[in-house]
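Example record

One chain of 373 residues, shown exactly as stored in the release files.
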Amino acid sequence: MRIKAPIKIDRKTKNLAKRLSVGDIAVINHKDIDEIAATSLVEAKIKAVINADISISGRYPNKGPQILCEKNIFILDNVGKEVFDTLKEGDVVEIIDDKIYLENNLIGSGEILDREKIKEKLKICHENLSNELDNFIDNTIEYAKKEKDFILGNLNMPFIQTEFKNKHALIVVRGQNYKEDLSTIISYIEEVKPILIGVDGGADALLEFGYTPDMIVGDMDSVSDKCLKQCKEIIVHAYPDGRAPGLERVKKLGLKATVFPAPGTSEDIAMLIPYEKGAKLIVALGTHSNMIDFLEKGRKGMASTFLVRLKIGSKLIDAKGVSLLYKSRLKVKYIWGLVVAALVPILIVAYVSTPIQQLIKLMELRMRLLLEF
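Predicted structure tokens for this chain:
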């Protein structure tokens, strides 16, 4: 294998994905590449990934490397963090088999992750999954005890401008198949006109489909500046002690935001806000709702999500995966049905139209003359 191309480099894959161009080599430091990160790299149409860390550690079966491999993106794994000291953005590097060269100088090497190697590593992951599940459940129970009073009790809700009373709320989370799911429920958005809430990067998906988010909720680490400037209300998710790292970014853009200190995830408070404000129905898509989802987010349990869903369950519809549930295919019999339906009015017009009847008789007469000869 021989690949030569300019690099884009960042320790955070979600930041790097915004800067990638077609044909780049992405240099990342991402342990256990998750599905969302891999999808963002695939969408950028890069040539290769150089990962300073381990793409599959063996803790759980993360899907990222397999997604990259299926799209024929070369993966050079575990090259070491020293690569960040050697390379800078824009350098043109050459990958020859498992080695990296800069200006013909060897600067590092790693492990090639091909289909067979990924399959082998994922098999080990599945064997370790039961132990990971035990730890995950223990952590979930432990944190649920700590967070139950905050979530199930009287929530100290900040002032929210958006009016939710007796309305539907649609929450878009940057999760598995979230764009496909969003495209599937476009008719619902057009007909019902729900309040549109984007959780961090999920807000950009709304913008991509032509909708301006009514609210963005999150720590502001993956949503675009353009989306922040266009949305109607910004809720910065802060730590329970009040620290809100995302607030600084919002202020630098000259925008106003409301800070919401809370345990758990940003999507949890994105669900709690419409519920506490009297929304009639909450529709969520792209949400993180199982152990693999949470492990990919780097979380050891899902206490807050469990408690939030327990609290708002009567009003919540989870549309995650709806695009996989319903995939309409245009069948041949449907096409013939459309053809027949289109011919019916033509035949009726032909039957009642005198000029067309005369034309048919002329054609009939001409055919008889031809047959006689």
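Notes: The domain at 2-113 is CATH 3.50.30.10 (Glucose Oxidase; domain 1).
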